[in-house]
Structure formats: structure tokens, C-alpha cells
Design a protein that fits this description.
Elements lengths: L4 H136 L4 H14 L3 H13 L4 E5 L5 H15 L5 E5 L6 E6 L2 E6 L1 H16 L7 H13 L1
Parallel strand pairs: 1-2
Antiparallel strand pairs: 1-3, 3-4
């Protein structure tokens, strides 16, 4: 069998040409396309890895922030708890102070009311005692209570001790005006004359006297001159009665002052 070398050559040439054409226009673009796709895939994988790393970092940062927030929340909760305890103690202390202040004001009010009641009882007791005393002396003697008080005052005037008498005499001598004789009642002329004579005899001089009425003396007589004073009042005999009434008020058991009112006239009568 004869070989047609021309045909073989032509076919070889055609094959080489086909290979070149395929490499030129088919295989090379496919390889480029494959390379580009591999590069895109590699880029995407690298981008995915980067995003994964970034996601891991963000997750770690998020967990760290969560931990920080948890710690901050716990710290704020502890601080709020401590502040609440402090505020509770402050409010309790303030409430205790307010309660103590209220109790003190209430106690002060009660003491003031008790003192007011005590004063009212003392005034009422004095009025009753004076009325009973005046009645008793009026029944036992021919002179009135006022006359009896004047007699007691003149007797006390004459019975003054030496130093007191000297001080009062000096005050009468150096006084720029008359001596002031104050009494709880308006002295009659006869009683004024008796007191005037007692003063003149006691101090061996003509003593000028100005008479005034002062009901607050409570059935008493008071002579003042240049800062010196000699006085006598039924109040002296009521001191024990006032103390007794005050003690009974403290015990919140105030009996009728009849017994004290009966004993006071007896002491006054004995004087």
C-alpha cells in the first residue's frame, strides 16, 4: 500500500493548525477563564477568611463588651444597693429625729399645760384661802383682815434686826423722793397713820410716804426706798401649798385644796 505523503503532510499540517487554533482561540481563553475563576474563588475565600477573622474579632469584642457591661451592671447594682442602704439609714435616722422632736414638743406642751394648770390651781387656791382666811379672822377678831395685816407689818417694821434697819434708814435718808408703800388694798386713814407713826418712831425722823395700791402683792404690804425693801405678804404662807400642788400635778392626781385651805388660815391666825 502506497502512502500518500502529501495527504499525510496535509493532514499533519491541518492537525497542527487545528491544535494551534484550538490553543489560540479555545484552550488559552479557557485556561485564562479558569485562572480568573480560581483567582476570584481564592479572593472570595480570602475575603471569607478575613470576614471570618473579623467576625471572630467582633465576637470577642462583643463578648468582652458584654463582660464589661455585666461587671458595670453588677457594680451599679452594688452601688445602688449601698446607696439604698445609706438612704434607708438616713431616712430612719431622720424619722427617729423627727419622732424625738415631736415627742419633745409634745412633752414640752404637756409640761406647759401642766404649768398653766398649776398656776390656775394656785391662783384659785389663793383666792379660796384668802376668802376663808378673811372669814376666819373676821369671826375670831373684831378687826378686819386688812387691819390685821397692817398690824403685822408694823410689828415686823419695829422688829427689824440692826443691819436691815440701818440699810433701810440710810435708804430713807438718801432717797430723792418719798418712800413708796404699796399694799394689795387701799389703806384707810387710821391704818396709814398707824404705819406712819411706826416709821417715824423706828427711824426717829419724819418719813415721807407715798401710798400706792398693788393687788399683785396678794394681801400684803411693801415699803421700798432707794433700792431697799421691807415687805410682808400672805404669799409667804402659801409657798408650802404651792409646792404641794405642784407635786400633785406631777403625779396627775390633784385633790381638792380644802385641807390646805383649812390649814393656811390656822397658821395665819397663829401669827
Amino acid at each position: 500500500m502506497l502512502i500518500d505523503w502529501f495527504t499525510v503532510g496535509a493532514q499533519a499540517l491541518n492537525f497542527l493548525l487545528l491544535v494551534w487554533l484550538m490553543k489560540r482561540f479555545l484552550y488559552k481563553p479557557i485556561l485564562q477563564s479558569i485562572d480568573e475563576r480560581e483567582k476570584r474563588i481564592a479572593g472570595r475565600l480570602a475575603d471569607a477568611d478575613a470576614k471570618k477573622v473579623e467576625a471572630v474579632k467582633e465576637r470577642d469584642a462583643f463578648e468582652h463588651k458584654n463582660q464589661a457591661l455585666d461587671q458595670q451592671r453588677a457594680a451599679l447594682l452594688n452601688q445602688a444597693t449601698d446607696d439604698a442602704k445609706v438612704e434607708r439609714q438616713r431616712l430612719l435616722g431622720q424619722a427617729q429625729k423627727d419622732a424625738d422632736a415631736l415627742s419633745a414638743r409634745r412633752q414640752e406642751t404637756l409640761m406647759h399645760e401642766a404649768e398653766t394648770l398649776n398656776q390656775a390651781l394656785v391662783r384659785r387656791t389663793r383666792q379660796e384661802v384668802f376668802a376663808i382666811t378673811r372669814k376666819v379672822l373676821s369671826d375670831l377678831a373684831t378687826t378686819s383682815l386688812e387691819e390685821r395685816l397692817g398690824e403685822v407689818f408694823t410689828r415686823r417694821l419695829r422688829d427689824m434686826d440692826g443691819p436691815q434697819k440701818e440699810r433701810l434708814a440710810e435708804a430713807l435718808r438718801t432717797a430723792s423722793g418719798p418712800a413708796i408703800l404699796r399694799s394689795a388694798f387701799d389703806l384707810p386713814a387710821q391704818q396709814r397713820a398707824t404705819i406712819q407713826n411706826a416709821l417715824n418712831e423706828t427711824f426717829s425722823a419724819e418719813v415721807r410716804v407715798q401710798y400706792e395700791t398693788a393687788p399683785e402683792l396678794v394681801s400684803g404690804i411693801e415699803l421700798t426706798a432707794n433700792g431697799q425693801k421691807i415687805a410682808w405678804s400672805i404669799s409667804d404662807y402659801l409657798e408650802s401649798l404651792e409646792k404641794g400642788v405642784a407635786g400633785l400635778l406631777i403625779k396627775q392626781a390633784v385633790p381638792a385644796p380644802a385641807d390646805a385651805a383649812e390649814t393656811a388660815p390656822k397658821r395665819l391666825a397663829n401669827r
